[in-house]
Design brief:
The complex is a heterotrimer of chains A (about 425), B (about 375) and C (about 375). Chain B is about 40% helix and about 20% strand. Chain B is of the alpha/beta class and about 375 residues long. In chain B, helix 2 packs antiparallel against helix 13. Chain C has 9 helices and 20 strands. Classes of the chains: A mainly alpha (about 425), B alpha/beta (about 375), C alpha+beta (about 375). Chains in contact: A-B, A-C.
């Protein structure tokens, strides 16, 4: 039984097969290679880089080496002694000369607001000071006499850090190293994540409710009519996102078309114009319209494959039209529903331009915060951590989908 | 070893010489200047770029961006710098300098005023920093639609926060900057003490409490083009805005808007040179040229932003197209400047992350 | 063969009033017309009775209106005009789910998200049958189609033939009086199709249920039915038991559509009692007058290939004897298909039983064909 099969001339069969298939395999690899390289450099590598950026923290270790070395043995119970201040003075002077002091100050300021001016200010003076330093430092900025300042420096000494992820969930280290919530007035990200999830769910459900009948109609109409309707569904794809979003503003603002019509027809009084945009519902309305095709297309492609005879069969078996639709048709659209919802939801949680334009005060999403930290505050580490959490969320979603529906049943069109 | 070194040096010298000849049009004779686009860039092209090219023969490529340091940071980190001169906000100039993204500028290259006052005395306070030289003063003011108020017109910052006396929606920029200052001013804090109060937790609480009083009536804007539009559409009765934008709407579109200068928060826009800029020398020359007394006064003929030099003020004439006398519309005009608040970049550089979080958290709840 | 014909006669006899207790037809189409576009009629004035317990097949080429009739009966298409009765009650306004008609679809239409047992339980569930009853009846139905152990499988895990059986069982599990089958065997290969024909036939006989069956396959129609309605162009061309249809077609279409057939077109010269004399390309043929318009009109003669004698020893028995030239021989095992040219028609086909005596026939040789007048039907042109 265990004897190897061989070809006629005595070569092991497996080897013969492998060499016969080799050129085929090489060709397959060559065909896939360009895309793989492209995806690697345009997708996988940047994502890996982003994840690395969310934990890397080289600045303090690199530009304050003496201070970091001294603080290694610091117990954190009281303000360190002269030795640490001397090291600090040395580091600050060097860092100022190499023009790196700003980076260090900015990094520390992300962690403890106000430290930026403490560092840059002290660095300017430190060059002129003679030892002993401790009193001079504390004299210059009282923060040097506080445990929190030193705790921050020590906490940021390692080159790999979790502070970005903590900050991304509204948490920080306390002076004694415990993880704690930040002040209530400053908490933003957890709420924003939850709101992003909630708004994405609302957008997804709205898309499903609006898209399902459209897809059903498209799938059951003769091709001639359904093509025209399909163009109407796809029209948003061919219009610039910005134009569409601005159109919504024109339509929905309090002096906009919709409110005008309602005032004109007497549904509402001129004084009671409804705020439809620059808030969460404006964002939901605009995003639903923009993402609708991503729901309709997978639904349509699945519905197109459901033979009309299923419904007829169910009716002939005694089920009322609605019951037949619910028990027979709807379950068969589930792969499309799943794909559409997954697609819309994932696009929605990463949406950026629309909430930025029509979000107003409570229609912002986490991606707007990521953009803020990328472009304005330049806190790329925090932006990467927020993005990393979003990425993990999406992966969990895929995993759930795979568990519940099966990724192989995903149909995108 | 020595031979090799010589050879390399020789080759390098050759390349440089050749490069200087061959690449001359692309290098020495051109300069990339990046600014904010629209009427603002136009004013710079008219007042700075054209005369500079005429004088030196250096072509200026004008590019637009939407502010922030992200692109500069990306270029510097990637080691392929394409921009030479960039027009930035003060907070970005300071932060960019701190982070080593900008070239230091030697203030001694700046020409003195016509009467001989040295540049360091002629520029307004804070207009010259390690890496940046200011060209204009712009201001966040609030503006209202005159047709919306038949009786009393709003005239103080307190009126902006007074929904009873002046009902209607308010437009505000979606950022704590300027809003907190105005809120404190409206709450009775003298404009000279704003940042002292804001530096305390109680002061921040006080500012947010004042904002709370109008929060439900606020429409938040982000881009500078939005507030005149919001006013024109009747979406808001009054809105904070950049003074230049409102002036344009009044002067060129004949909108019935009026500007309230009380507690204006003024800031500077500055020229910086990107670290490792390909035409660093020309960039420095450009900045020195563009920020001289006459040039700054010329720009004011195109847009209602005040020149950063005191000596430019008397030279300001009429609007180049609308023919309006520009002097009274400058943030720096004495009548407008009485209660002006100068944006404290040190304060914001230290506290903006924290206050942004607090502001966003406040907005969402 | 004989048994089948007898059975067919028994049922038609029933339909014609042989039974005493309930001789009303189960289904009646009364002047039914159907148009989809308001311009052309797909079904033109259809009148048809289906007897209780009958296996009636609607046979015809695609577009002949047979499926439309079935859909109107099932309730999926409204009749444009006329009335359909089920059990003497008009059903035009009864929705499909209240008609209580079982239906087997072309591609089975098994619900892919349900197991076989759940598929079968569906019609019982919607009728709110008690759970124990559902289980019992599902099991019985599965046993009936010999799929007792397949209840927990999904339709996709079954072979075509098995899916077909499930579809039949599902259409029958709620004891409908009438079952409609729309080309149910179209997707099966030949061997399986024949096997399934017998199985369906047996189920019909055992349950006594009335079946209306739609197919375009004439051999299937002949094998299974009590009566066959041949559709063409929206009209029933002939409604008759299979043997009658084959032996005595009423018109050229039926003759051509059912079984293999030789057609010769000619002019009627003379009407002579039951017979006519026809001039076909100069040859004079005597034929049975079935459906002609008298002397001088055109007619199509229909002769079944197996009714032609080759080189008959007793030429006197045949009214028609002609010389023929063999054009082509096709060996088919049990018989040899011979294409010859006779009376100016070179598409004339004769089936020669594979017996040694005829081995001498070769392509290109000349032979004699003879057929009787009664086997040569003069039909409409």
């Amino acid at each position: 039984m265990s004897e190897q099969l061989t070809t006629v001339d005595g070569r092991p069969l497996k080897a013969a097969l492998a060499s016969a298939e080799r050129s085929k395999r090489i060709r397959a690899v060559l065909l896939v290679m360009p895309l793989f390289i492209f995806i690697f450099f345009s997708f996988l590598y940047p994502i890996a880089l982003m994840l690395y950026r969310s934990v890397e923290n080289p600045l303090i270790a690199q530009h304050m080496p003496e201070t970091v070395a001294v603080l290694e043995d610091w117990d954190g119970n009281e303000v360190p002694g002269e030795e640490a201040f001397a090291a600090l003075a040395k580091d600050l002077v060097v860092a100022r000369e190499s023009r790196e002091i700003g980076k260090v100050a900015t990094r520390l300021n992300f962690e403890t607001p106000g430290l930026r001016s403490v560092i840059t200010g002290s660095a300017r003076s430190a060059g002129k000071w003679e030892p002993p330093y401790k009193e001079k430092f504390i004299d210059r900025r009282k923060e040097w006499g506080e445990l929190a300042t030193w705790a921050t420096i020590k906490r940021l000494s390692p080159t790999i850090t979790s502070v970005n992820y903590l900050a991304a969930v509204d948490r920080q280290y306390s002076v004694d190293g415990e993880i704690q919530m930040i002040g209530e007035d400053y908490q933003i990200y957890v709420d924003l994540f939850l709101r992003t999830l909630w708004m994405s769910v609302v957008v997804t459900v709205s898309c499903l409710i609006l898209g399902f009948p459209i897809a059903y109609m498209l799938a059951s109409l003769p091709l001639r009519h359904s093509n025209l309707l399909m163009i109407l569904v796809l029209l948003p794809f061919w219009t610039s996102l910005l134009v569409r979003t601005t159109s919504w503003i024109v339509l929905l603002q309090t002096q906009g078309v919709l409110n005008d019509i309602m005032v004109w027809t007497g549904i509402i009084d001129d004084a009671q114009r409804i705020q439809l945009i620059f808030n969460a519902q404006g964002t939901v309305i605009a995003m639903t319209q923009i993402l609708l095709p991503f729901m309709v297309l997978p639904l349509y492609s699945v519905m197109k494959t459901i033979p009309p005879s299923y419904l007829r069969a169910a009716e002939s078996l005694g089920a009322h039209r609605f019951l037949a639709f619910w028990r027979i048709y709807v379950p068969n659209t589930l792969p499309g529903v799943g794909a559409g919802c997954l697609l819309v939801f994932i696009l929605a949680i990463g949406y950026y331009i629309t909430p930025a334009l029509v979000g107003g005060q409570d229609g912002q999403m986490i991606s707007n915060m990521i953009a803020f930290h990328m472009q304005k505050s330049l806190n790329w580490g925090l932006a990467a951590a927020l993005g990393g959490i979003l990425l993990v969320g999406v992966i969990i979603l895929y995993w759930l989908y795979n568990k519940l529906v099966g990724i192989d049943r995903l149909k995108l069109g | 070893m020595i031979n090799k070194l010589k050879l390399t040096t020789f080759a390098a010298a050759g390349v440089i010489a050749f490069g200087a000849m061959a690449a001359a049009p692309a290098n020495a004779d051109s300069l990339t200047v990046v600014s904010w686009g629209g009427a603002y860039t136009k004013s710079q092209v008219e007042a700075y770029h054209k005369p500079f090219t005429k004088k030196t023969g250096t072509e200026i490529l004008s590019e637009n961006y939407s502010g922030g340091l992200a692109e500069i940071k990306a270029q510097v980190e990637a080691g392929s710098v394409k921009w030479d001169v960039v027009d930035v906000e003060l907070s970005d100039a300071v932060r960019g300098c701190d982070e080593g993204l900008l070239e230091p500028i030697d203030a001694s290259i700046l020409p003195p005023a016509p009467d001989g006052t040295p540049a360091s005395k002629d520029f307004i306070d804070g207009a010259i920093t390690d890496c940046a030289v200011a060209s204009i003063v712009w201001s966040t003011i609030y503006s209202y639609d005159k047709s919306k108020f038949s009786g009393d017109k709003p005239s103080t910052i307190a009126d902006f926060f007074d929904l009873k006396k002046f009902p209607g929606k308010r437009g505000m920029r979606k950022t704590p900057k300027a809003n907190l200052e105005m809120a404190l001013a409206a709450d009775g804090v003298p404009t000279s003490e704003i940042y002292d109060v804001l530096a305390t937790d109680a002061g921040v609480d006080r500012a947010f409490k004042k904002l709370d009083s109008i929060k439900d009536s606020v429409v938040w804007w982000e881009a500078g083009a939005q507030p005149p539009q919001l006013l024109a559409d009747g979406e808001v009765a009054m809105t904070t805005a950049y003074n230049g934008r409102i002036f344009n709407a009044i002067a060129t579109e004949n909108k019935p808007f009026d500007i309230v200068w009380d507690a204006q928060v003024f800031d500077t826009d500055l020229f910086v040179v990107v670290k490792g800029a390909p035409n660093k020398k020309a960039a420095m020359d450009f900045i020195a040229f563009a920020t001289d007394t006459q040039r700054l006064a010329d720009q004011a003929a195109w847009i209602s932003y005040g020149p950063a030099r005191k000596s430019s003020a008397p030279l300001i004439g009429k609007h180049a197209e609308a023919g309006i006398e520009m002097g009274p519309h400058m943030p720096t005009a004495p009548e407008n400047f009485k209660t002006a608040i100068q944006n404290d970049f040190e304060f914001w550089a230290d506290r903006q992350d924290e206050l942004n979080n607090r502001f966003n958290s406040w907005l969402a709840n | 063969m004989i048994a089948r014909i007898r059975a067919a006669h028994r049922v038609t006899g029933m339909a014609q009033g042989g039974m005493t207790e309930n001789n009303d037809p189960l289904v009646r189409f009364e002047s039914v017309q159907k148009s989809y576009d308001g311009e052309t009629l797909v079904v033109k004035d259809l009148n048809l009775d289906v007897a209780r317990g009958e296996f009636l097949t609607m046979l015809g080429p695609s577009g002949s209106g047979k499926t439309t009739c079935l859909m109107m009966l099932a309730g999926f298409e409204p009749a444009t005009h006329g009335e359909i009765y089920l059990d003497n009650a008009p059903i035009n306004n009864v929705p499909p789910h209240k008609r209580g008609i079982g239906m087997v679809f072309q591609n089975y239409a098994l619900f892919p998200h349900m197991t076989v047992a759940e598929n079968l339980a569906f019609p019982l569930e919607v009728r709110k049958a008690p759970k124990s009853e559902i289980e019992a009846r599902v099991k019985k139905a599965l046993d009936m189609v010999q799929l007792g152990t397949f209840g927990n499988r999904r339709p996709a895990q079954l072979s075509g033939g098995q899916q077909q059986r499930v579809a039949v069982a599902r259409a029958l599990v709620f004891d409908p009086v009438l079952v409609l089958m729309d080309e149910p065997l179209g997707a099966l290969d030949k061997q399986l199709r024949e096997q399934m024909q017998y199985e369906i036939k047996h189920i019909h006989e055992n349950l006594g249920v009335t079946v209306v069956y739609v197919t375009h396959d004439q051999s299937e129609a002949l094998t299974m039915s009590n009566r066959v309605a041949v559709f063409n162009d929206g009209v029933i061309q002939q409604l008759a038991p299979p043997d009658v249809l084959y032996e005595r077609p009423d018109n050229a279409f039926v003759a051509q559509f059912i079984g293999e057939n030789n057609t010769l077109v000619g002019d009627i010269k003379e009407v002579n009692g039951d017979n006519v004399t026809v001039d076909v390309n100069g040859s004079i043929i005597t034929a049975l007058n079935v459906n002609t318009e008298g002397v001088g009109s055109k007619t199509t003669l229909s002769i079944r290939p197996e009714r032609v004698a080759v080189n008959p020893s007793n030429e006197g028995d045949y009214q028609n004897v002609f010389k023929a030239k063999v054009e082509e021989l096709i060996y088919l095992g049990d018989h040899i298909r011979t294409r010859a040219s006779v009376c100016g028609d070179d598409e004339f086909v004769v089936k020669i039983a594979n017996a040694s005596a005829l081995a001498a026939i070769n392509e290109g040789t000349e032979v004699t064909f003879g057929w009787k007048a009664e086997d040569c039907r003069a039909l409409d042109a």
